[in-house]
Design goal:
- The chain contains four helices and six strands; from the N terminus they run βαββααβαββ.
- A six-stranded mixed β-sheet has the order 2-3-4-1-5-6, with helices on both faces.
- The protein has helices at residues 12-20, 41-50, 55-65, 85-104, and strands spanning 2-6, 27-29, 37-39, 70-74, 107-112, 115-118.
- α2 packs across α4 and α3 (55-65) runs parallel beside α4.
Length: 120
């Protein structure tokens, strides 16, 4: 498994696809589908929380069942803490899930301006 994180619109998806020699058709947008890349993971988490589901349980089970997946997620914790409790929860849960994925991942990259830096 691989995790690619970074700020919004920093070229994370393009980095992940190029690294693996894939096309956008190989990526699932905000959905847990058995494709090589799952991107906008933060949006999957937002939807799961809104539907009162457990995104941590769902994502860790998916990762275990699909160990070659590349997860791509916006890094949400680098800004002003939202006043809205639901927005704070989404941000916190996303951070915790990224920590869990990073711990299990073979490699982790942070992408800035389209350039990936290996951090694990």
């Amino acid at each position: 498994m691989e995790l690619v994180i970074g700020g919004r619109s920093q070229g994370k998806l393009q980095f992940a696809l190029k690294r693996r020699g894939l096309t956008p058709k190989d990526a699932a947008d905000g959905k847990l589908e058995p494709r090589p890349v799952v991107y906008n993971l933060q949006e999957y988490i937002r939807k799961a929380l809104a539907e009162k589901r457990d995104p941590e349980k769902e994502i860790t089970a998916f990762a275990a069942a699909h160990p070659d997946t590349v997860f791509v997620c916006d890094q949400l914790g680098c800004g002003i803490v939202p006043a809205d409790p639901e927005e704070r929860l989404w941000r916190d849960v996303t951070g915790r899930i990224c920590c869990l994925l990073a711990a299990e991942a073979d490699s982790v990259f942070r992408v800035i301006c389209g350039i990936g830096q290996k951090i694990k």
